[in-house]
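pinging the channel bc i need a second pair of eyes. not urgent but kinda urgent?? the chain im working w is below, pasted from the shared doc
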Amino acid sequence: MARPKKNIDEKKVLEEAQRFSTYEEIAEQVGCSADTLSRRFADTIEKGHTYARRSLRGKQYDLAMKGNVTMLIWLGKQYLGQTDKAYQDIKHSGGVMIVESQKDENEWLAIMAERRAAISDGNGRG
């Protein structure tokens, strides 16, 4: 004989999901296992998580539309494919070399070592 179903407040499950709570966190709040929630309330939890994402995105949009520069940049990167591509001029031997500044420190050191070697060899190219 199967044991009786535990009485779980679906409204509480939904409220917790709308706060981005995990299955484990919700389970602790309502007094059951995460597996029980997964079996019985997966749709409810997904609905709550969807609501939370939509609400957060709406607040971010509102901030951006009020002129929050940080949020405008972040949303542009997320939804418009915009990126930060900063460039830096490095002058050597009268020429200019354009390199992306997003390189890590080791890449920069290797580039600069190559430039110094080229200059000291007298060819000045690069």
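so The chain has two domains: 10-80, 87-120. and Residues 34-65 form the longest helix (32 residues). — does that match what u expected or am i reading it wrong
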